[in-house]
Structures are given as structure tokens and as C-alpha cells.
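Input record (Table S2, row 234):
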Amino acid sequence: MERQFTSVIIPAAGQGRRMNSTINKQYLTLNEKPILAYTLDVFEKCSMINEIVLVINKDEFKICEHQVLKPYHYTKVQLVEGGDTRQQSVYAGLKAVNSKADIVMVHDGARPIIQESVIIKSIYETMEHQATVVGVPAKNTIKVINASGFVEYTPNRDYLIEIQTPQTFEHQLLRRAHENAIEEGVEGTDDAFLVERLRCPVKIVIGQYTNIKITTPEDLIIAESIIKRYEKKR
Ligand code: CTP
Ligand code: MG
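Output record (cytidine-5'-triphosphate complex):
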């Protein structure tokens, strides 16, 4: 297959409110290394990734430089200032993506335990299907409720997937999806939703349960122990 120029946008410009920490969660450490450095390392080392567009808060350029970029030496990273919502941050990143990119991947800065094999699988699947999202089969029963807190119905678990990142798209498709959402004032919680609105099929890539998003304090304990286990195995 022809070599594709692939860019990854890493939104890391949130506030981390649910973490209840004084610093943005991406700069908290797991076994003494910042969360964001784990995330960047995987994409920096992956030979199929050509550029990394890292989206950060305006007032966090210094902390990012001192705690992540300088100590860990990245060659593919360029910095962009984020927006008020995740969607705005991704769009800010998208505007900075190299115009020759064929494929653009979006991956949360707060998901440090992403495996290179999942990134590679996502790129290959996107060459074939134009839009892919990583997810894992739901382990729990999920119920749809109404506004009064009563169960409306119980969807069949065989068809429920918990969605993670990376989410990967043909470059121009992702651009169209974001621009269309802006025009119509739509705000989604993930990028695939914007592509789904264009009635474009989105293929699931089965990933790993360990690819958690660091969201609340207990996630730090879980992530540290997963990382320690992975390091022992190597
Ligand atoms: N993000 C971003 N810009 C925003 C909001 C979120 O770049 N305006 C990023 C976060 O930094 C994170 C990813 O999107 O890496 C997923 O978002 P989430 O886990 O919700 O992070 P926060 O919004 O920072 O956390 P919270 O919702 O608890 O405030
Ligand atoms: Mg958020």
C-alpha cells in the first residue's frame, strides 16, 4: 500500500475539573513521568506518524516546555493554543496540520497507555474505511433512562462498544465534518460524531481495556499499576 502522510492531533488543553488537582491533569506524574510525556512518547516512536500537533492551554506553554518537551526530546511536535471546548481545541489543531497530510488521527492527551499496535491498526483500517474509532466491548449492562430516572429500555450488550481514542479519518473528511459542525452550531463529545452527521460510515477498531482516560483521582492508581505491569513484561 502507498505510504500515507499521517498527522496526530493531541488535545491537552482541558481544565481537568473532575481530577480536582491544582495543575492540569496531563502534567501530573505516573511513576515520576508526566502523563502527557507517556502519550507523546508512543506517537514519537511510531514510524507511521509524521507529525504531532499538540494542543495546549495558552498559560501552560512554560510548564509544557519545562516538564515535558525539554526533558523528553521530541522531534515531531508542534504546539498550538487550545479553545474552550475539546472540539474547539481539535479544530485549532486541525488548522495547523500539514496540508499534505492524507490521514489525521485525534488522540486524547489524557490517554497515556495507548499501544503502538492499536495506532498502526487504526491507520491501516482508515486507509480502507475512511473513518475509524477505537473502542472495546462494553463489560457492563447499559440502560437508557428518561428524565425522571426510570429505565426506558436495555440495549443488547452485543452491540454496545465503549469508545476511546485514537479516532482516525481521511484528512479532508475530518475537515468537512468540523466545518459543517461549526456552521450548524453543533458541539459533539467526540470527532466521530461529527463525521457520523455527514452520514459517513465509521468503522470500529477493537482496542484494549487498558487504554483508559485519566479523569478522576483513582484513575492515577489504576494507570500506575498498569504501566508497572507492562514494564515488567518487557
Ligand atoms: N481538552 C482540550 N481542550 C478543551 C477540553 C478538553 O484539549 N477545551 C482535552 C483534555 O485536555 C483531554 C481530552 O481533551 O486530554 C479529553 O477531555 P477530558 O478528559 O474531558 O479532559 P478535561 O476536559 O481536561 O477534564 P474535565 O472534563 O474533568 O474538566
Ligand atoms: Mg472535559
